[in-house]
């Protein structure tokens, strides 16, 4: 081997400049006595809505370099260095440096492994990346039009504060370490990987409440840190190969845990708004150190007394607490009720071909997560009948009294584990004569179904349906349209 056969180096450097401009103008008229004007005569309406306009500008600039080195097609090292600048951060915090390095060893290049091992690679990496996914001007105090006010006999549009300033706003940074094994057996008839990773995120970009009184209730801040650890396993196989029949399959198993490490000076941040009548200012989740994002927090439901009143777990210091039970829990009685993160997820796919027929499916599931059934809290309350509102039929057999209000508690936190047949496809390929001579053209006719069945103990519509209920909330379902079951048929022609 020559020197260049054994050693290989490539170096790449670059500069990237991105400038974004978004603007909008709108005007509206209402109450037209005819539609013949179309949109060419806004003044023809009986009511004119005040026009509006806005514009946002932002820039993202990057300097980057990458160097790759390999030795004898066996050892590999890659180094990356980026310096990124984003206009939306505060003065002095717009730029950040993000390095990364990775290395791998192709063990199977040697001759000391058993013959059935066709590929074996060990790899490890470390790197830092930034998150600049925030709107422009987030570090600045912004003003905008406010309410109309009368000065003497003249009405004018006031100017008011619409955003709090944060001159210290900076990049959210994530440092990740990963260790992995890539493998193949029996001439790569079986292949896959096993990877373990650790992600530490600092200076989280979170919108939090500011001390009151204030013109604007919240502002974006860099607060605390978060750790994610996970393991991913995959295995792909050519399970069977015959003259007219092949069967390939794949399995993916993943497990991840996240933990809030710090929230700065805060002990917790509330999230997960509870929807429904009488639920004002009620939340279902807390973000707090030592627990994952999506942690449900509230009173523990114990049952119903002879009068149909709801009973909750309480501490001895709670007023009215008798034998550890109360009908009116307070914040001191709240506990962790679970979290919305699955313990693990599983995916199974299969592809079979027999002569001109083909079939495939994708089956997946998530296990161990909790879901807050906000819809059940609202519509399982038979007291709705007193106000002429709908309620679920199951409420008729509920022992809770008709005058009892809907109260958020562990009663509405359910196991959200599920198995879903994500897709099933059947096809047949036939040859049709070419229109202008030549070889016949293959045509594949197929029928496909998505979301064909769901196996779960969850009593709501769908354990995967998520309602946006505030900062980093997850695992909340409230009258959201579930995933549709769809069927598709078609054909594909090759020319």
Describe this structure in words.
A hairpin with an 8-residue loop joins strand 3 (75-86) and strand 4. This protein has a 14-stranded antiparallel beta sheet. Strands 14-15-16-20 form a four-stranded antiparallel beta sheet, with no helix packed on it. With 495 residues, it is an all-beta fold. It is globular, with a radius of gyration of 30 Å. It has two helices and 28 strands. The chain is 2% helix and 56% strand. The model has no long low-confidence stretch (mean pLDDT 92). It has helices at residues 3-6, 374-379, and strands at 7-30, 47-71, 75-86, 95-106, 117-131, 142-151, 154-163, 172-185, 190-202, 205-209, 218-222, 225-241, 245-262, 269-273, 283-287, 295-298, 301-304, 310-313, 325-326, 335-339, 344-354, 357-367, 370-373, 413-415, 418-432, 441-456, 476-477, 486-493.
- Going across the major beta sheet, what is the strand order? 1-2-3-4-5-8-9-12-13-21-22-25-26-28
Q: What is the H-and-E element order?
A: HEEEEEEEEEEEEEEEEEEEEEEEHEEEEE
Task: Note the overall shape.
Answer: globular
Major sheet, described briefly? 14 strands, antiparallel
Q: From the alpha-carbon coordinates, what is the Rg to the nearest angstrom? A: 30 Å
Average pLDDT rating: 92
Task: Report the structural category.
Answer: mainly beta
- The total of helices stands at 2
The poorly predicted ranges are none
Helix content: under 10%
N/C terminus separation: 46 Å
Which strand-content bin applies to the residues?
A: over 45%
Number of strands: 28
């Amino acid at each position: 081997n020559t020197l260049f056969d054994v050693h290989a180096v490539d170096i790449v450097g670059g500069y990237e400049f991105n400038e974004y401009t978004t603007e909008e103008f709108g005007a509206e008229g209402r109450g037209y006595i005819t539609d013949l004007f179309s949109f060419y005569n806004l003044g023809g309406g009986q009511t004119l809505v005040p026009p509006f306009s806005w514009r946002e500008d932002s820039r993202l600039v990057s300097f980057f370099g990458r160097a790759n080195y390999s030795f004898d097609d066996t050892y590999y090292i890659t180094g990356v260095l980026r310096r990124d600048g984003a206009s939306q951060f505060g003065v002095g915090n717009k730029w950040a440096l993000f390095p990364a390095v990775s290395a791998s060893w192709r063990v199977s290049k040697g001759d000391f492994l058993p013959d059935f091992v066709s590929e074996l690679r060990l790899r490890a990496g470390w790197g830092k990346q930034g998150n600049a996914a925030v709107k422009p001007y987030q570090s600045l105090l912004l003003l905008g039009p406010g309410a109309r006010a009368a000065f003497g006999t003249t009405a004018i549009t006031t100017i008011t504060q619409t955003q709090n300033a944060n001159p210290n706003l900076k990049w959210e940074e994530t440092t990740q370490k990963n260790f992995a094994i890539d493998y193949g057996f029996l001439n790569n008839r079986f292949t896959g990987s096993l990877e373990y990773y650790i992600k530490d995120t600092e200076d989280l970009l979170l919108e939090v409440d500011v001390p009151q009184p204030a013109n604007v209730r919240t502002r974006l801040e860099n607060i605390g840190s978060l750790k994610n650890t996970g393991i991913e396993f995959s295995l792909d196989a050519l399970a069977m190969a015959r003259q007219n029949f092949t069967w390939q399959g794949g399995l993916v198993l993943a497990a991840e845990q996240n933990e809030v490490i710090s929230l700065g000076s805060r002990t917790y941040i509330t999230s997960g708004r509870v929807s429904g009548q009488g639920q004002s200012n009620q939340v279902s989740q807390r973000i707090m150190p030592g627990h994952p994002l999506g942690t449900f927090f509230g009173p523990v439901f114990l049952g119903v007394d002879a009068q149909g009143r709801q009973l909750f777990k309480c501490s001895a210091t709670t007023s009215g607490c008798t034998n550890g039970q109360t009908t009116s829990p307070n914040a001191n009685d709240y506990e962790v009720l679970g979290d919305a993160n699955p313990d693990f997820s599983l995916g199974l796919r299969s592809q079979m071909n027999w002569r001109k027929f083909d079939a495939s499916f994708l089956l997946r599931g998530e296990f161990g997560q909790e879901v807050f059934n906000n819809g059940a809290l609202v519509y399982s309350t038979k007291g709705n009948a007193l106000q002429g509102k709908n309620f679920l039929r199951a409420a008729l057999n509920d022992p809770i009294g008709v005058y009892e209000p809907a109260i958020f508690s562990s009663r509405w936190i359910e196991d959200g584990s599920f198995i879903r047949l994500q897709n099933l496809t059947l096809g047949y390929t036939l040859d049709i004569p070419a229109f202008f001579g030549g070889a016949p053209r293959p045509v594949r006719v197929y029928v496909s179904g998505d979301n064909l069945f769901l196996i779960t103990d969850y009593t709501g519509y769908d354990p995967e349906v998520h309602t946006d209920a505030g900062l980093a909330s997850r695992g909340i379902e409230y009258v959201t349209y579930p995933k549709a079951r769809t069927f598709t048929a078609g054909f594909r022609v090759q020319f």
